[in-house]
């Protein structure tokens, strides 16, 4: 018995548990996990047990782990219960917000990254597998040509060396280790054929642009022979990898941080089965964007990017843009500008270049009207309360010279109907006051802007005619007709300091 107790005492108090191909981590065992598998890709999912979101997510994550284990790849997948108090400091440390959330650590790197891609099993497998790749090696130029032809949306950072040794080689490997999870890296040993292929005379790095993304003024390859240290190489890659139109994903967004310019995002479904269609659409987009290409990457007024719409549909759904097969989207000065599918392509699928030209020119001249999710309705008023839709907000609220009571609601909230009944009684009370207007807006069907976009619906705001953008909110949860009238009277009665 004493011997058994002695053996048990040697087991760490927070040893992690392996469930199939997943590791369950608790407290300090997270540190143990990081140390033991530091040389591999580490993927950690923070979850809330039994939540509906995690129930859907967990099956894909578990089966992805099972499939990846069969491939014997250098990666480990783990999960952490976000409701366990022992894990609280790691939730803060890894900047975890909503659940389930995934963070990953590239091999031999302590810095973490948030996974923001698709959450299907196939997407997990493809993404995590890609992140385990170290340096690709091409046996010959035919293998290289085949790879580039099959990856029309991705470029390549290629190291060309006479021997896999020496200072330049080691510096390149160090830079690759820090960036390989973002950019594809490869390495080749020259025996005469590689120098000739790229018309270079010494060892160095080549950035090879993706064929579908090369515009009229882009060079297909850029060389760097000054391999002084890994930091300067990393900066050079980040600056030069992106051509005038870049392939944009949620995960690679951080690599665009050298440019503060708004993204003119061309989102459409990238079906690899139709590469010529992709190429033609991008050539058309290039033609429209070409006049704006002159500045260097970091100084451009706009950054033109291509993205697969399927990857961003979840974020587009709340603003009713998920059903369009293609859109152009630009966020600038906190406003959203959109060109819809029917404005980009006609009924026969022909690219409407004039519309795209006008859109880009409108961004440059600040002449476009911002996009706002907005319900269309023929009903203008109900029981003394006018119906407001998102697209009319600027005109009917901000530009109105009346004091206004604005009710924001969701039909699904249990408090909406009783609150609306009280509001209708109050509107009737003020029916003869032509300086005060009552409006309501369905937050499920319309986008709320600025200070009106508050959680925990329903909400009642009083918007003073002098300052519509900063309304006062009625905050008493126990709403009655009398309390709401008093709130309005107190707000609209001139205060002594205003007299």
TrEMBL record:
Organism encoding this protein: Blepharisma stoltei
Domain Thioredoxin: residue ranges: 32-128
Family of this protein: Belongs to the protein disulfide isomerase family.
One Gene Ontology cellular component annotation held by this UniProt entry: endoplasmic reticulum
Listed GO biological process terms: protein folding; response to endoplasmic reticulum stress
InterPro entries membership: Thioredoxin-like_sf (IPR036249), Thioredoxin_domain (IPR013766)
KW Protease (keyword) present: no
Gene3D superfamilies from the UniProt entry: Glutaredoxin
Keyword field contains Signal: yes
GO MF, one annotated term: protein disulfide isomerase activity
Source organism, top-level taxon: Eukaryota
Keywords on record: Signal
Protein name per Swiss-Prot or TrEMBL: Thioredoxin domain-containing protein
Coiled-coil stretches noted in the UniProt entry, renumbered to this chain: none
Signal sequence range: 1-15
One of the Pfam families matching this protein, by short name: Thioredoxin_6
């Amino acid at each position: 018995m004493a011997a058994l107790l002695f053996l048990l005492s040697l087991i760490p108090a927070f040893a992690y548990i392996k469930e199939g191909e997943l590791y369950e981590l608790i407290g300090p065992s997270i540190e143990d996990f990081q140390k033991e598998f530091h040389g591999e890709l580490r993927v950690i999912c923070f979850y809330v047990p039994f939540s509906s979101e995690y129930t859907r997510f967990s099956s894909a994550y578990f089966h992805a782990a099972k499939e990846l284990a069969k491939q014997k790849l250098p990666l480990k997948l783990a999960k952490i219960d976000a409701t366990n108090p022992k894990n609280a400091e790691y939730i803060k440390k890894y900047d975890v917000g909503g659940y389930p959330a995934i963070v990953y650590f590239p091999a031999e790197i302590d810095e973490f990254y948030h996974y923001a891609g698709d959450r299907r099993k196939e997407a997990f497998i493809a993404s995590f597998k890609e992140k385990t790749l170290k340096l690709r090696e091409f046996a010959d130029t035919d293998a290289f040509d085949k790879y580039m032809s099959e990856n029309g949306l991705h470029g390549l950072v290629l190291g060309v060396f006479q021997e896999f040794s020496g200072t330049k080689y080691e510096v390149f490997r160090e830079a690759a280790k820090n960036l390989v999870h973002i950019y594809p890296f490869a390495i080749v040993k020259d025996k005469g054929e590689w120098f000739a292929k790229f018309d270079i005379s010494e060892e160095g790095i080549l950035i090879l642009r993706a064929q579908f993304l090369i515009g009229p003024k882009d060079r297909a390859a850029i060389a760097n022979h000054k391999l002084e240290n890994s930091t300067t190489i990393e900066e050079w890659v980040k600056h030069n990898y992106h051509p005038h139109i870049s392939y944009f994903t949620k995960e690679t967004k951080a690599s665009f941080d050298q440019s503060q310019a708004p993204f003119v995002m061309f989102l459409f479904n990238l079906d690899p089965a139709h590469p010529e269609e992709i190429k033609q659409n991008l050539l058309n987009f290039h033609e429209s964007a070409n006049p704006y290409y002159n500045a260097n990457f970091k100084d451009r007024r706009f950054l033109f990017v291509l993205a697969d719409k399927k990857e961003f549909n979840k974020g587009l759904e709340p603003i009713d843009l998920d059903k369009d097969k293609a859109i152009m989207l630009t966020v600038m000065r906190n406003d959203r500008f959109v060109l819809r599918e029917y404005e980009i392509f006609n009924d026969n699928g022909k690219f409407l270049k004039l519309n795209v030209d006008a859109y880009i020119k409108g961004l440059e001249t600040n002449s476009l009207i911002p996009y706002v999710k907005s319900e269309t309705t023929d009903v203008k008023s109900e029981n003394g309360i006018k119906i407001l839709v998102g697209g009319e907000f600027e005109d009917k609220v901000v530009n109105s010279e009346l004091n206004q009571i604005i009710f924001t609601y969701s039909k699904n909230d249990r408090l909406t109907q009783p609150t609306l009944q009280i509001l209708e009684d109050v509107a009737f009370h003020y029916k003869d006051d032509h300086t005060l207007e009552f409006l309501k807006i369905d937050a499920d069907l319309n986008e709320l802007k600025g200070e009106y976009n508050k959680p925990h619906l329903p909400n009642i705001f009083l918007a003073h005619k002098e300052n519509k953008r900063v309304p006062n909110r009625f905050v008493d949860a126990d709403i009655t007709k009398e309390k709401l009238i008093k709130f309005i009277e107190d707000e609209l009665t001139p205060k002594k300091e205003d007299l």
